[in-house]
Amino acid sequence: ARSELRPQLQATSLLQRLGPCTRASSYRRWKRPGDGRRYGARQCDGVPFVFSLTMYFSTSIRCLRVSKSSLFSSPSTFTMSHMPKIHRVATTRLTCRHVGRPVISSPRSGASRALKHLLQRLPSYCPESMNELWTCINSTLPGVSGKQEGWVGLGCCELAISADCRRDCKLKPLYSCIAKNEMGSVCCSYAGRHTTCREYCQAIFGTDSSPTASQINTINEYCPQLIGCVGNYTKSYPIKSPIDSLHCCDRAEDTHCQTACRRILRTMTTEHEIIDRLIEECQRQPLPQDPLWQCFLGNAQPPPNPDPDTPPTAKMDCAKLHCCAKANTSLCREMCQQSSTNWGAQTWQEFHQLCQYNPAEADLVTCLADVQEPCQLGCKDLSYCTNFNNRPTELFRSCNAQSDQGALSDIRLWEKGSIKMPFMSIPVQDITKCRPDMWRAVACTLQIKPCYSRSRGSVICKSDCVDILTQCGDHGKFHDGQTPESICDLLSPTDDPERCIPLQRYLSPSPLGDALEEVVHPCNPNPCPSNHLCEVNRRGCHPGQDCLPFFCVPGCKLGEASEFLVNVEAQVQVPVRGRPTGCYEVCVCAQSGRLEACTETPCVDTTKTCLLGDQRKSHGSSFRMGCHPCSCFGGEVFCSLRPCLTPLSSEEDRRRFTGLPCGCPDRFVPVCAQNGRTYPSACVARCVGLQDSQFDFGSCRTRDPCASNPCPRNQRCLPSRRVCLSSVSEFPCRQHDCVARSLVCDKTLLDPVCDTANQEHPNLCLLSQRGKVPAYSGPCQEGCSRPSPVCGQNGETYSTVCEAFSDRVMVDYPGQCHSVGVVSEFSSESGCDSVSCPPLATQGCQPVTPPGACCPLCAGMLRILWNKEQMNIFAELDHRRPVTVHDVLAILRLHVSVPQCDAFGYLSIDGELVVLIAPVDQQPTPLQMEACNKEAEKIDSLITSGSPTLVSRVPLSALALSEVRVSTLRSAGPPSRGSPPSFCSSSSSSSSPGGTPKSPPTPIRSRTATPSQ
């Protein structure tokens, strides 16, 4: 049954998390507790049941896929002929028989409501111990039908293996189901009829599982009058953690299953994920005679009541707590902090009312939106908001089927004549006749949430707001002082094209049509289970095998109440509970799925300001001193060394200006510094602060780091070149790794490496085990089998283009490095006159030239200013391991969601980090170029705004500010001069081997990978 229902389970995986569905008209619209979105229940009709063993929520087998938990749907489903038999069974107790008689004598006409009412009273008089009575009642139930409403989970009981199990399954849940329905009827009646609050309440009582944290939080926010009633129910049905069942793993028959069981229970939370993985890892079905599964079922008994004197542990959302420092008002800051450090606090409801639409809190609101729903490229497959489809290079926060149905539900509500908001109601005319297309665009914009790459705002432009309310608002019902302008001042306060969404764009379909195979989005929508992150597959597949274009990797939440995930082994910086703003600790995401090994960092006094003449700059602010980009950090100013001219520069200054740091000449006489960076001359090295003892003449890649035999006798030396950002005097920047001569390697791990003999190995461990020397990461490429020197944009000469890409550096020009480009846009001359640049790959591209490079290219370019003191702190906490450029690029690369683009970068000769988001195809299309530009603008905005989605990751927390330039596209014209050479392989696909997948589920065929890996 599980195998046959797998396609339906995948097709409805999102619906399975939304709670019960029903055909009743009053339930056609509802919200999923926790996110406030609206959904349509009609999608649930006709979906088959999918069963799963419940391990720690109940003692029965229950359905993952359910319908409304009503016992009876019509008189025909409970035949009156069974009533005398029930009455006879109930003779053991007078009061029970007394209640049973009216059931028997109820007239057949209109009996459904009476039967339901009377039978709901039976648990009060007929105890659960009267098994024969309840078995008899249960035997009259019709089972589950696609057209009739039935008891939650009854259909699953027929899937039990033994007759006793089937009987017990039907019996016990029936009793608790009646009691639960009665409790829900009483509790939800306080919410009134046909209210959103009532829908939230019924969602909790509509399933046979315990209420989720999200459901409880939603009730707390929107229905505070029900929290006591729901709380009593929660205490009766406590949520158990999978970790409570860890002892069951000892019952497994083999060591592998025991180990896998412990890992699964620690890292996963949902029942079906745990069960599926246990079946997969232990390679056996959940049979009742298996000691492991017996323990899980027996362990499902509710735990003893907790000590009433022990206060509940406060749960944190560290991702949201990051945002609280961005509040401009003390009220919103305190409310944000209280809600982020105390899960379940009622403050979020007040926060939404007082801060959500406060123009002064735009930065705070945007930060919180980043945590909950980050902006992602692409939107497709919507059935109602169809004008939002086929937009692969636009950013959206919530392009999914749920939001699509939510927009439709909003329209149905607005058709009643009022737009209800937390703090106001806006009366409107009949929107089916007054600008219906515009209203659809409004509803879809509010639900799908398009966001600009720079501001990341999702606010409708004020002019559109005023226009539609002027034409379609019911002005006669406006409150005193209410006008379209005053309403829109609160809802849509700006017409800035960089900070608001013009509705005109979504009044017509996308001009791209359906031909969108040029740009794909494997991780949007997210195909991975909960507690897992989706990463673009840039490694490829094992030879002769197929694989998906994405990986699902386990992660950790930033706090017990957070939904924001980071991948395992990641280091994160989170605020310290109860400490002032600016106090953080660095933690590691452990294999257990929790943040562990936390160490506090020195607190930063965020109240200190930076004095610039007669102006004060606040902590974290960015500004310019002359033409230098600068940042204020804890009262101290640090700026770029980028050379520039000002209007006050003298003629002599202009004559001597070279465009290089400190006015150094543009002669190329390279020196290798101890930080692993090759500088074009000793003058430039001294200008960035290096002493003569800290560099040697010659480029770094010409030096053999293993020549001096730096490793112990029982270890091999492998070159491992890196450019370090932390202090080389405190944290030595070694250019080699020492590895054991006898290694135990994982042969299943695929992270291919090519050695100097052009032989490919599945991973670096196996290469080292075989005594080979690595040449570059990724599969061996035919075009890189022989040396063909190229000059990288960092001024380093590489043996092949594959070696350059493996170092995450793009190629500047063919041949040995012999020139240095300027780092300033103010200089019109450079030492690159002798360089012959290849043509641009994208026709009509207006390129950018990276600092220090000679040749322009088509890419999105970021120049990032970073804090060296912070880098030193992170190096100290990471066992004194230096922070490298590769560390930064590896994390930024995870934020590039389009496989047709990739992240490259280097340390510029003026001390800035240069990051390029560039197409990886040989001949990228304009659409792919635009996608790379959007990815670059998105990352720039996240850095500049200090969004926790980026800066919570160590070492990205040390990135202070960013400036972005993108390669704009002309509508027509021949290709411009200058571009890095194309890939050395014949593959013209993205860095996902085997070609660009047509859609996320499409497998990648066995690889012909590009060197972008």
TrEMBL record:
<dbReference type="Pfam" id="PF23332">
    <property type="entry name" value="CC4_RECK"/>
</dbReference>
<dbReference type="GO" id="GO:0030198">
    <property type="term" value="P:extracellular matrix organization"/>
</dbReference>
<dbReference type="InterPro" id="IPR002350">
    <property type="entry name" value="Kazal_dom"/>
</dbReference>
<dbReference type="InterPro" id="IPR056976">
    <property type="entry name" value="EGF1_RECK"/>
</dbReference>
<dbReference type="InterPro" id="IPR056979">
    <property type="entry name" value="FZ_RECK"/>
</dbReference>
<dbReference type="InterPro" id="IPR036058">
    <property type="entry name" value="Kazal_dom_sf"/>
</dbReference>
<keyword id="KW-0336">GPI-anchor</keyword>
<dbReference type="GO" id="GO:0002040">
    <property type="term" value="P:sprouting angiogenesis"/>
</dbReference>
<dbReference type="Pfam" id="PF22961">
    <property type="entry name" value="RECK-like_N"/>
</dbReference>
<dbReference type="GO" id="GO:0004867">
    <property type="term" value="F:serine-type endopeptidase inhibitor activity"/>
</dbReference>
<dbReference type="Pfam" id="PF07648">
    <property type="entry name" value="Kazal_2"/>
</dbReference>
<keyword id="KW-0325">Glycoprotein</keyword>
<protein>
    <recommendedName>
        <fullName>Reversion-inducing cysteine-rich protein with Kazal motifs</fullName>
    </recommendedName>
</protein>
<dbReference type="GO" id="GO:0008191">
    <property type="term" value="F:metalloendopeptidase inhibitor activity"/>
</dbReference>
<keyword id="KW-0449">Lipoprotein</keyword>
<keyword id="KW-1003">Cell membrane</keyword>
<dbReference type="GO" id="GO:0016055">
    <property type="term" value="P:Wnt signaling pathway"/>
</dbReference>
<dbReference type="InterPro" id="IPR056977">
    <property type="entry name" value="FnI_RECK"/>
</dbReference>
<keyword id="KW-0646">Protease inhibitor</keyword>
<dbReference type="InterPro" id="IPR056978">
    <property type="entry name" value="CC4_RECK"/>
</dbReference>
<dbReference type="GO" id="GO:0098552">
    <property type="term" value="C:side of membrane"/>
</dbReference>
<dbReference type="Pfam" id="PF22955">
    <property type="entry name" value="EGF2_RECK"/>
</dbReference>
<feature type="region of interest" description="Disordered">
    <location>
        <begin position="970"/>
        <end position="1013"/>
    </location>
</feature>
<dbReference type="Pfam" id="PF25027">
    <property type="entry name" value="EGF1_RECK"/>
</dbReference>
<dbReference type="GO" id="GO:0005886">
    <property type="term" value="C:plasma membrane"/>
</dbReference>
<keyword id="KW-0472">Membrane</keyword>
<feature type="compositionally biased region" description="Low complexity">
    <location>
        <begin position="971"/>
        <end position="997"/>
    </location>
</feature>
<dbReference type="InterPro" id="IPR039016">
    <property type="entry name" value="RECK"/>
</dbReference>
<keyword id="KW-0722">Serine protease inhibitor</keyword>
<feature type="domain" description="Kazal-like">
    <location>
        <begin position="656"/>
        <end position="702"/>
    </location>
</feature>
<keyword id="KW-0732">Signal</keyword>
<dbReference type="Pfam" id="PF25028">
    <property type="entry name" value="FnI_RECK"/>
</dbReference>
<keyword id="KW-0677">Repeat</keyword>
<keyword id="KW-1015">Disulfide bond</keyword>
<dbReference type="InterPro" id="IPR055134">
    <property type="entry name" value="EGF2_RECK_dom"/>
</dbReference>
<dbReference type="Pfam" id="PF23298">
    <property type="entry name" value="FZ_RECK"/>
</dbReference>
<dbReference type="GO" id="GO:0001955">
    <property type="term" value="P:blood vessel maturation"/>
</dbReference>
<comment type="similarity">
    <text>Belongs to the RECK family.</text>
</comment>
<dbReference type="InterPro" id="IPR055110">
    <property type="entry name" value="RECK-like_N"/>
</dbReference>
<keyword id="KW-0879">Wnt signaling pathway</keyword>
